[in-house]
Amino acid sequence: MRHDWTLPEIRAIYETPLLSLLFRAQQVARQFHQPDQVQTCHLVSIKTGGCPEDCAYCPQSAHYDTPVARQGLMDVEEVLTRARRAAADGVTRLCMGAAWRDAPDGPEFDTVLRMVRGVARRVR
């Protein structure tokens, strides 16, 4: 990844027609990924509902009456079991979502770190 772009280089990219940029992006992507494969993702809500944020689009917000039941932080082993099952089903990426405003310090954050490390280590 470059961080030393010159103004003329940036201007040249900016002035390149969109379809040309898309074609070049596809060429670069094919250098690193098989063109006939699609990455699949599995989402696990590791802490559901009761988020203090006021995001009108999100059913996890505590500010709105939604059918999403509040659930505390999942157990590490349950997350790893779901991750292994997803991997066995051919899923290539696991996303873990949590209804928090900020990631807290302390035991809950340490639990999330164990989840992330466990998925990265054991599910491959």
Account of the 3D structure:
This protein has about 120 residues and is mainly α. It has a domain at about 40-120. The protein has 4 helices and 2 strands, in the order ααβαβα. The chain has helices spanning about 5-15, 20-30, 75-90, 105-120, and strands at about 40-45, 95-100. Strands 1-2 form a two-stranded parallel sheet. Helix 3 (about 75-90) packs parallel to helix 4 (about 105-120). It is extended, with a radius of gyration of 20 Å. It starts with 6 loop residues before the first helix and ends with a helix.
What does the oligomeric state look like here? single chain
**Global Rg:** 20 Å
Helix-strand makeup class: mainly alpha
Strand order of the largest sheet: 1-2
Provide the helix percentage: 40-55%
| N-to-C series of helices and strands | HHEHEH
Discrete helix count:
4
Number of strands: 2
Percentage of β-strand residues: 5-15%
Global morphology: extended
Distance between the termini: 26 Å
Uncertain stretches of 5 or more adjacent residues = none
Largest sheet: 2 strands, parallel
Mean pLDDT: 88
